[in-house]
Amino acid sequence: MHGYDENDALAAIRGNLPLSSLNSSNIDPTLLFCIIRGIRHHPDFANALRRETWVLQYPALLRAINARDIMNDIVPSMETDEEVPYCIWHPEIASEATYRALAERYPHMRYQVGRACAAAGYVDLWRDLALLPDISIAEEARDNQANPGSRLILEAILKEPVKWLVMNDYTRTVSADAPLPARFGLNGDTAVRSTLDIKRSLGELGGFWTFGDRGYLALSGGSPFVSSLSFNITEDWNIDAEYGACEDAGTDAEMATLLWNPLPDHLPEGNKDVLILMAAYHGDIDRYARLRRPTRPLPQETACIQRGIYHNTMFARWWAEQPNNGEFQAAINARYIMNNDPSRITVDTPAFALPSVIWYPSWACAETYREVVSLCPAMKPAAARAAIVADHQDLWDELLDSIDPSPALLAEASWREGETTGAQKAPLSL
Fold first, then answer.
1. Percent of the chain at pLDDT above 70?
2. 213-232: average pLDDT
3. Is the distance from CB of 129 to CB of 99 less than 8 angstroms?
4. Mapped to the 3 state alphabet, what secondary structure does 294-324 carry?
5. What span, in angstroms and rounded, lies between the C-alpha atoms of 366 and 369?
6. By Cβ atoms counted within 10 A, which residue in 17, 34, 222, 331 is the most buried?
7. How many angstroms separate the CA atoms of 84 and 76, rounded?
8. Helices assigned H by DSSP within 42-147
9. CB neighbours of 107 closer than 8 A, spacing ≥ 6?
10. 134 DSSP 8-state letter
11. pTM, 2 dp
């Protein structure tokens, strides 16, 4: 059940929510996202909220109000970094003079201004800013290249031998003081302006449990299978009043051809999610390491990674060295065991890292399974199933008296019946 009033949420989106109806000490997360959406699209609503003292409790609301001011050609007073908005070019674009004044007053916002120039085609201002050739600005310019100025910005950046990662749309951060050189060209890691017009209705999103970037992820169990919601640069999750057609994996024809062709220096425009999933599924380290989104895996991505680890030893080896790989520990350990390397298994291996399937897509020799059981007795049931599948009769005989019958063992024995002689003849009585 939602914790918000739908009528209030819709009113907030439309910018006509009576502020007197709000309990400022306990505003539902979904309603807060709707309020941000209303602020960005309705100047009068933003001005009304500016006068509410409780707004100071929510820096995201202050950022939205300041973004709305900028798009209204007003340079706001911002005293702390928490008040500085990331996206200042959607849903509307300010005048070139406003962006110039903003960059002069707040030099640390030069890259946001440069991004706005790419969206608007303000090539003269972009040149005056003397920015590093930033990948996200290039992708924004490409998205708006029908504008001659945007096209010139794109061409200027692409001509540079070294491009940089300054703006990060996944984290809404700007690393002007510590930029990283880009390892790849345009890589589909930018929430370009056209994707911000893809809206998600209240009914589709289903409500939020917490406010902030984790809100929708906590509800859905992962990032949605849509590129526009891999990002939240407007801080409102693209929420809207109306149902809209959900952007699907939706790769265009050019992106789809990369399923069977090498990746170019610059990915084409479009949604790269299907490329991410396919790279993970096959355990293609080079493609996956380039394509993956750094902060929010797709819901289907975890299953694809598990499959890739099971089927590709080098992918398992790579994942073994990655941080935050806890959910893949069991798959990694399984692949090692099937490669006759039980070194990752000890008596102290936590239960979540103990694999239950250690015989598919290949099986180890009997001695390896025997060593696994010796190192970690909790692995006996898995080793017993492996003994049946791999026809390791001697190993099965050794384990028989120390394991409990189970439907899983019966299923494996039934599968083996009619195959080669051996473990299927074990005296299972379940």
1. 87
2. 51
3. no
4. CCCCCCCHHHHHHHHHHHCHHHHHHHHCCCC
5. 5
6. 34
7. 10
8. 43-50, 59-71, 96-105, 110-120, 123-129, 135-143
9. none
10. B
11. 0.88
Q: Range with the lowest mean pLDDT among 234-248, 269-283, 326-340, 399-413?
A: 234-248
Task: Tell whether the model's pLDDT for residue 215 goes beyond 50.
Answer: no
pLDDT in tens, 239-275: 998 754 444 444 578 899 999 999 999 999 998 999 9
Q: Six-digit token pair at 295?
A: 């902060």
Nearest to 386 by CA among 411, 354, 364, 419: 364
Backbone angles phi and psi of 250, in degrees to 5: 35, 40
| Per-residue burial over 25-35, b = 16 or more CB atoms within 10 Å of its CB, e = otherwise | eebbbbbbbbb
What is the C-alpha separation between 296 and 378, in angstroms, rounded?
33
Q: What gap in Å lies between CA 67 and CA 46, rounded to an integer? A: 10
The one-letter code for the residue type at 272 is K
Distance from C-alpha of 219 to C-alpha of 215, rounded to nearest angstrom:
7
Beta bridge partners of 225: none
**Residues comprising the chain, all counted:** 430
Q: What's the Cα-to-Cα distance from 41 to each of 6, 17, 67, 190, 241, rounded to whole Å?
A: 19, 13, 10, 22, 13
